[in-house]
Write a structure and sequence with these properties.
The protein has 467 residues and is mainly alpha-helical. It is built from 21 helices and 8 strands. The relative contact order is 0.07.
């Protein structure tokens, strides 16, 4: 093998390890043989089950970078502009003393730069002469290949698919074009497009999770089955995790545009009572208009009562700004900040959760199939409402001792009441699903007789359940 005899150019934002793999293929070498050009620290990243990770990344020292540049036949300055991990340093390489030869260390791409996705093989083939796998850093708003009608999937999950076919869903491709306009509007407003996307993505993914209980929802189920090749069949939950980001992308773009619209922000202000503060109404104009903008006129009242969700949090930030309330300490920007617990799980996290469920006895989707959707929705709303109230109490320790104690006790009393209601609904849901009353009684901390009397007593039994 003569280094530099063949030229292998990098793709924009490609992982360094992806380029190494393409160099090996170009020279007709086994990848393991090419890796012997470097002295390695650590082991190649693997998934829990032992499968090699497609989002593996390598960090090279100066000598290691020169070796790869020679193999590619491309200058280091070109590689530095194309490969985000090219100039990074690593402590394991910096501490190499008395060791000759070029060094390299294994890393996970997401921990080095950011989200990693598969590239479009057809686009790569136009340059490489034959379809070839490329792995590159790409945000979720950069996943559509309009030329070939594909949604490019995350590369950090333990699954074989690289893309989803969008040829039957032109609205997803069109959303990619509309996103460019959202970016321009965000820049004019002095906001990072990624921040706006994060809020909109959290809002819509929350709707996606709740949509299983929405009898009027027709669009997302149709998209899900289309992206699954026509029918998700018996692998419904896996497909639901795989296609979520692609299926909700048009709505995410529309919600992002709405959140940047000053007219929509004004509607939030009016719904709050403007100069005469009041609780946000279930029939508020903002949520109703937002539902219409995403093609779901019936969605407004459901979104308006999703207490503790990212949309209500954003509306609260808009109201605080208009009233001149300072952003709480630790919040980078109250308007475009999504709490950690409200950030949607990644595709990889969802698939890992599904895998763990199948390994546990009695796990799976029995709860969803056996408990009424209305009851599940109510339990979730009660828990979210209690959580939101408890978060607000963190800043309630101001004023005199009497005032602070009164606010805390009233807030805690409200949260306890919501948790007790959630406990009662969960008890009844478990019993309706066929769980033995004696088991439920043990979990609640009551005797079976006392539990039966409590549930049949009427009135407000939820207040008596200990949680």
């Amino acid at each position: 093998m003569v280094p530099g005899i063949l030229r292998v150019s990098p793709f924009t934002r490609e992982t360094t390890y992806s380029l190494v793999g393409r160099v090996a293929a170009r020279y007709g070498l086994n990848e393991a043989a090419l890796l012997t050009h470097w002295q390695w620290r650590g082991h190649r990243p693997r998934h829990e089950g032992g499968a090699l990770r497609a989002d593996a990344e390598v960090v090279l020292d100066a000598a290691g970078r020169r070796v790869l540049a020679d193999l590619c036949g491309v200058g280091e300055e070109v590689l530095g502009r194309a490969l985000p991990a090219w100039g990074l340093e690593d402590e394991k390489l910096a501490t190499r003393t008395g060791e000759g030869g070029p060094g390299a260390v294994w890393r996970v791409g997401g921990a080095v730069v950011g989200p990693v996705a598969f590239g479009c093989r057809s686009c790569a083939g136009r340059r490489a002469g034959a379809p070839v796998r490329v792995v590159r850093y790409a945000q979720r708003w950069e996943r559509v290949c309009a030329r070939h009608g594909r949604w490019l999937l995350d590369a950090d999950a333990d699954q074989a698919l690289e893309f989803l076919d969008l040829r039957g869903l032109p609205e997803v491709v069109e959303a990619q074009r509309r996103w460019a306009g959202v970016v321009r509007r965000a820049v004019r407003a002095g906001v990072g497009p990624g921040e706006v996307f994060s809020v909109a993505w959290a809002v819509v993914c929350r709707w996606w999770d709740q949509a299983l209980e929405w009898p009027d929802e027709r669009v997302w189920p149709a998209r899900l089955h289309a992206l699954a090749g026509g029918d998700a069949g018996g692998d419904f939950w896996r497909w639901r995790a795989l296609v979520r980001d692609a299926a909700v992308f048009p709505e995410v773009v529309e919600v992002a545009a709405s959140l940047l619209d000053p007219v929509m922000a004004e509607l939030v202000w009016r719904d709050s009572g403007a100069g005469r503060p009041r609780a946000l109404p279930a029939d508020g104009t903002f949520c109703r208009r937002l539902g219409e903008r995403v093609g779901r006129p019936w969605l407004g009242p459901l979104a308006a009562v999703d207490y503790g969700g990212p949309l209500i949090a954003w509306m609260g930030a808009v109201i605080r700004r208009r009233r001149g309330v300072a952003v709480p300490p630790g919040h980078r920007d109250g308007l475009w900040w999504v709490r950690q617990e409200l950030q949607p799980p990644s595709m990889a996290a969802q698939l890992r959760a599904l895998t763990k469920e199948t390994r546990l006895p009695g796990s799976g989707t029995a709860w969803r199939s056996a408990v009424a959707p209305e009851r599940r929705m109510l339990i979730n709303n009660l828990l979210d409402d209690a959580q939101e109230q408890l978060i607000q109490l963190r800043g309630a320790q101001r004023g005199s001792s009497a005032e602070a104690a009164e606010r805390l006790l009233k807030g805690l009393g409200y949260s306890i009441g919501r948790l007790q209601e959630a406990a009662r609904e969960t008890v009844e849901g478990a019993l309706e699903a066929g769980v033995r009353p004696e088991d439920v009684a043990v979990w609640v901390g009551m005797s079976p007789g006392a539990l039966a009397g409590l549930l049949g007593a009427g009135g407000e039994p939820a207040r008596q359940i200990e949680v």
